[in-house]
Amino acid sequence: MTEPQKDPLVLFMPSGRRGRFAKGTPVLDAARQLGVYIESVCGGRGICGRCQIEAQEGHFAKHGISSAADHLSGVTEAENRYAEKRVLVEGRRLSCQALVEGDLVVDVPQDVQINRQIVRKRAETRVIERDPATQLCYIEVEEPDMEKPLGDADRLLHALEKEWGFQKPRIAARLLPQIQKLLRDGEWKVTCAVYTDGRVEGGGPIVTAIFPGFHNVGCGLAVDIGSTTIAAHLTSLLSGRTMASAGAPNPQIRFGEDLMSRVSYVMMNPEGRTQMTKAVRDAIGVLIAELVQGAGITPDDVLEAVFVGNPIMHHLFLGIDPTELGGAPFALAVSDAVSLDAREIGLPINDGAHVYVLPCIAGHVGADAAAVTLAEGPHRADEMTLVVDVGTNAEIVLGNKDRLVAASSPTGPAFEGAEISGGQRAAPGAIERVRIDRETLEPKIKIIGGDEWSNEEGFEKVAQDVGVTGICGSGIIEVVGEMYLAGIIDEDGVIDGSLAAKSERIQPTGRTFSYLLWRGDEAAKSQEIKILQTDIRAIQLAKAALYAGVRLLMDKLGLEQVEAIKLAGAFGSYIDPTYAMVIGLIPDCPIDKVKGVGNAAGTGARMALLNRSYRREIEEVVRKIEKIETAMEPRFQEHFVAAMAFPNKVEAFPNLAGAVTLPPRKVLGGGEDGRPRRRGGRRR
């Protein structure tokens, strides 16, 4: 007897929500049932055009889905009418009109996401001394003279030498056909953009752009390409001020949540590298357009760009196959800093703009970690400082001015909401703070979009406006920490089923137990959110991987304790340091010496953008950092197993114990059911 055929599986990106739906279900209805926000003003009649989506093509092994555009029903008359009257980008469909006919990976384009993910990688406020590689130089050029038969370009260069002191400047070849018109348009007065970093062929100062007359707008881009999010900052090269910032989910997520799944996609799909390179460059192009418009400038005013990212993002952005990074010896195609023209990679900025990509530290410790190191300066410090850029792949640097070591740990996407039953990325409605009463085990929460706790006046209105839709990374850390401090889970992470007699929030779920964090309310757009035993395990695996990597670096330097900890990255910035220590994500340290440092990778990129000396500094520092490959270290497994416990099976946390009341150790079930396990031997 043949098995009944399953309904098509539909996966929405970038939210990661998925579900099975009967053939003929409108994509818009599928999205609403999964809690994926797609705006529709016209009530599904195909008039407003706000519900646009894109069906992705290809086999997505990470998700077990083969998606194709023809897995949607045919284009309707309503879509044709809309496309005639307005603009419907090729490849896009109206989700109210497109019906599910087969398995699908559906993108909700970032330009139509109204309640889209909050990208928390803001530009940190820091005064950076300016010495940019590109500077604007206003000059007055001698007019042609029959008795002085010098070319217009030569007289322009002579003026630069005379008025600005440049030695042997050159003009980019692409500008030579335009020289005469530009000089005459400016009545022999022009402003030149001169690039002086010397990392281009031929070296020396080179004129990369010419503006007729006096022009005092010159900007640069600092971009952090994360595996989950991309953050871009538009900065004035003249004042150092950040003029605008924008962020978006990395569209490569549809090819795999984690880095290795993206490498696997490249290996299994001949066009995989091209697809992912195009996806990230297109997303950056959209961000640039948003920044330029928001700042009230033109793309031609953007004269330079600096990029950072982990090694796989670095390679894919540059169009390099990352396959060699998928296995030992994890060889980088290029580790040194890269300098190239913006037009070589199709960036929608000034054609003469130069792009600088920071160096990578090792096969899994990239240019983003180099940027974090530059920004936080452990190499300038006396105290032993641990810097952790917490993300899908955590990058770790430890040391001081005498010695630095670095490694990466594959934490996976659990801290960003993936692999957690009620998890989601940071967006309005996501639970970001949790407290649990030690006696009643009743919780209170805060959600993104409001400042009130759930037991305070005003919370109900916020919840009605945005809903309670899931739990994001900082909330996941806190709820697990609170469950441990309240005795709901033991040090091994097992939920204590006996507490069901004390609180209805402890509920049997199959062979295990769960904790009911939030009761759903359909009328208030809120869904039931439980913390399952499998969620606890996912967090244990992620935090143990990170801690084991840190511990290996401490072993390398002969340390039993670090003196300061800096948590970088969008997620790291929103973690409460106390709860990070409670769950054993980071080693014991004085609580007041642990702090979030914001988007340090973005700050490091801005430092390299605004001052050439920082480029030379990080290029030198990277060569001195000792790289540890965690997968090859014999003690990794030992540290990993110990770190599965809360906060740790073998290591003491005296600083933490002085700050919070840790629960007494209890022995719970041997399986995952919370029932007492039998132990051999005599009772003591």
Automatic annotation (TrEMBL):
Chain spans, region Disordered: 664-684
GO function terms (MF aspect): iron-sulfur cluster binding
Classification via PROSITE patterns: 2FE2S_FER_2
Domain of life: Bacteria
Domain (2Fe-2S ferredoxin-type): residue spans on this chain: 8-112
Name by which UniProt lists this protein: Uncharacterized 2Fe-2 and 4Fe-4S clusters-containing protein, contains DUF4445 domain
